[in-house]
Specification:
Strand order of the largest sheet: 1-2-3
Number of strands: 3
Number of helices: 5
Distance between the termini: 128 Å
Shape: elongated
Largest sheet: 3 strands, antiparallel
Number of domains: 1
Structural class: mainly alpha
Helix content: 40-55%
Order of helices and strands: HHHEEHHE
Radius of gyration: 34 Å
Strand content: 5-15%
Length: 211
């Protein structure tokens, strides 16, 4: 008697569940990839913001350095001026009001005049310096204290919208007022109390000018 062997198809155990697991794994991988990509994009955006901030800061510092060197050269080029000829003690707010009103002019323009006294030359140079600051820096203004025999202290003041509080990035910070105890960076970046003390967003840089 011939017996036929019946071959039944092998049962695929767990095929459906395996397919489901594969689909779940793929979805998790996609979500992880999206999360990593999002973190990367946020990092790139943050780097761009910092780059723009530091770029602006570098540009402002270059303009500050150029204008401080300019007033130092002007003082040294006029040795016959009196010891206080280059003093300029007008506060920041008053200066900016005059600049915006277009009323900053010298009694005599020594760039075009045939002759000028040392005092007239000093007054003309201070006006030109102030106008250059207003042109080169946002909210730019100048302040000069001291005197020739002991050294002038030239201060450049400007508005920096990135000068914010660490604890509140949406609020502008204020520079410390200068006093006799400050040295180093603190002494170079404070604002003269009678010039721009505690004005939000206003930065200052000081330089000693010794003829």
């Amino acid at each position: 008697m011939l017996m036929k062997t019946l071959h039944k198809p092998a049962k695929l155990i767990g095929t459906r569940s395996g397919h489901t697991d594969q689909q779940g794994s793929t979805l998790i991988e996609v979500l992880v990839a999206i999360l990593i990509l999002s973190i990367g994009l946020l990092g790139i955006a943050g780097m761009q913001v910092l780059t723009m901030r530091y770029s602006q800061g570098g540009w402002a510092r270059a303009a500050v350095a150029a204008n401080l060197s300019d007033i130092a050269d002007r003082v040294r080029a006029n040795p016959s001026a009196s010891v206080t000829a280059y003093q300029f003690l007008t506060d920041y707010t008053t200066q900016r009001t005059a600049i915006e009103a277009g009323t900053v002019t010298a009694p005599k323009d020594c760039e075009t005049a045939i002759t000028c006294t040392p005092a007239e030359l000093a007054a003309s140079q201070i006006v030109r310096w102030r106008l250059a600051l207003a042109r080169d820096l946002p909210g730019g203004a100048g302040f000069i204290s001291g005197q020739r025999d002991t050294g002038y202290v030239a201060t450049v003041m400007w508005f920096d919208k990135s000068f914010v509080l660490d604890s509140a990035p949406t609020s502008l910070d204020s520079a410390a007022a200068c006093d006799s105890t400050q040295t180093g960076i603190a002494g170079r970046t404070c604002c003269p109390a009678s010039a721009a003390s505690k004005l939000p967003g206003i930065r200052c840089t000081n330089m000693l000018v010794t003829p």
